[in-house]
Amino acid sequence: MNLSLILAVIFVSFVTSDVFAATCTLKFNKAYPGVFVSPYGRYDVILSAGNGTVQFDSNYGLDAYCSGGFKNYASASTPKPESQLKFTCTGSTLRYQIPGSSFTYLAKNDGSLLCDNAAQYYSQTVQYCKNTGLAYGFNIANTTSVIFGEVCTDFKKYRTDFVHYVAGVRNDLVNEQYLLNPGNVSKPLPANNVYAVNDTTFIKENQTLPTAIRSKSGNYAQLMTYRMDNLIPIKYQAGVMDSYVRNFQNAAAIPWWSNLLDFNWQQLQYLINDLSYSGWYDVYAGTSDDVQMPYETKNVTFTYDVNQLNRTIPLYVWNLVKKNDKKDTGVVVIGVNSPFFPGDKSKTVLCKDTCDKVTWLNPLKNTRKIASMGYIFCCDPKDVKKILNGFPQM
Questions:
Q1: What domain of life (predicted)?
Q2: Residue (of 61, 276, 250) closest to 155 by Cα position
Q3: Cα–Cα distances in Å, from 68 out to 142, 151, 231, 244?
Q4: What is the pLDDT of residue 77?
Q5: How many CA within 13 A on the CB side of residue 202?
Q6: Is the torsion defined by CA of 312, 137, 186, 268 positive or negative?
Q7: Nearest 5°: phi and psi at 226?
């Protein structure tokens, strides 16, 4: 074949692909996005869902997933929610297909497509958990799971024993998601094991806590600046998929003292996130003991009621941070979640403080013992595993 003929073939191939391949745009409610996957070369890629639109190649189509079921996807009718859809387009016309069907239907593409819950809780065995074990995440194509964290919860008290997650850099490649799943699990989460976590308790506690502090803490109200927030920095952990974790708080939120969360503990979260760039780390997070208010002759545990449950505020928030291997025992970082820090530290610090021996904690050296920023100390796991509530017995 001569050179001119080869060039002609290449030109025709280029023109043909350019004519028949088009860029399609799907619009959706950006506050409630689904999980959108499209091939890129030999990889399946999870597309960014942050701005309410995704674009895809008409030759390949777009696979969409929603654990809770998509709504507002059909142009001509209002069918039942679907957990999986395939979108294709011809020109500006968008169509959808339901798995198992050979038919395509006209899709609604006005930005109203929504997925109430991309990620959900699933019942499963969680290692070291003595109560109810849950995995929080979603499936892709019923072949791959994305698990943001495991939660061990006592639903009788509606309190979390611990949360386990893998700190690392989560990317957008489908076939690499298992690397940041706890235990490197790759198999899909069983659809029949969805655990409906009622959000009414979280909502009620979010409303009740500040009211209880104002009415029951007397002169201490200005010191007791508590708010409900996630036990772990789920947005960091989710990485490029932070749009999908909004309902995580329903089973894994605690009352945080704002000074601790906004200063020293926030710095700790940044340091764990930075540490994860050098490798994967297992992080177990939990709480222990109760905040007590000082009175004239004794200390009294602060309590409040939520949906007939008697609640307390945790005195300690702890993180066990260890390398993702069996050899490393890790370090337990503990924050004092209270404005009432005694001058006698021996009553509050549970062990010989080892923070200064942990090099990745060096940026906290100058502030971690300032009580008004949330006092932080460190322990060897063996020294506190029988002391801290909910601590995993490894």
A1: Eukaryota
A2: 250
A3: 14, 20, 24, 12
A4: 81
A5: 17
A6: negative
A7: -100, 150
Query: What's the CA gap between 384 and 394, in Å, rounded?
Result: 12
The pLDDT of residue 246 is: 84
Containing 210, the helix (H) or strand (E) segment is helix 200-216
Q: Could you give the C-alpha distances from 288 to 45, 273, 278, in angstroms and in order?
A: 40, 24, 30
Lookup result for tokens 């010989």: 352
- Count CB atoms within 10 A of the CB of residue 15: 10
Low-confidence ranges of the chain (pLDDT < 50): 1-20
Distance CA(26)–CA(53), nearest Å, equals 6
Q: Do 259 and 225 meet the contact criterion of CB atoms below 8 Å apart?
A: yes
Distance between CA atoms of 226 and 223, rounded to whole angstroms? 9
| φ, ψ for residue 15, nearest 5 deg | -65, -45
Pairing of strands 226-230, 253-257: antiparallel
DSSP letter for 163, please.
E
Q: What is the pLDDT of residue 310?
A: 92
How many helices and strands, by DSSP H and E, does the chain display? Answer: 6, 23
Burial (CB < 10 A; 0-12, 13-18, 19+), residue 381, is middle
In whole angstroms, give the CA distance from residue 90 to residue 22.
Answer: 8
In this prediction, residue 364 carries a pLDDT of: 98
CA pair distance 302, 12, nearest whole angstrom: 77
Three-class SS state of 255: strand
Task: Give the pLDDT of residue 1.
Answer: 44
- Three-state secondary structure of 93-123: EEEEECCCCCCCEEECCCCCCEECCCCEEEE
CA distance 234 to 266: 13
Residue partners of 310: CB distance under 8 A and separation at least 6: 303, 304
Q: Which residues of 132-144 are buried (b: 16+ CB within 10 A; e: fewer)?
A: bbbbbbbbbeeeb
Please give the structure tokens belonging to residue 114: 């929504």
Nearest residue to 96 via CA among 142, 46, 49, 61? 61
**Rounded CA gap, 101 and 391, in Å?**
49
- If residue 56 lies in a helix (H) or strand (E), which one and from where to where? strand 53-57
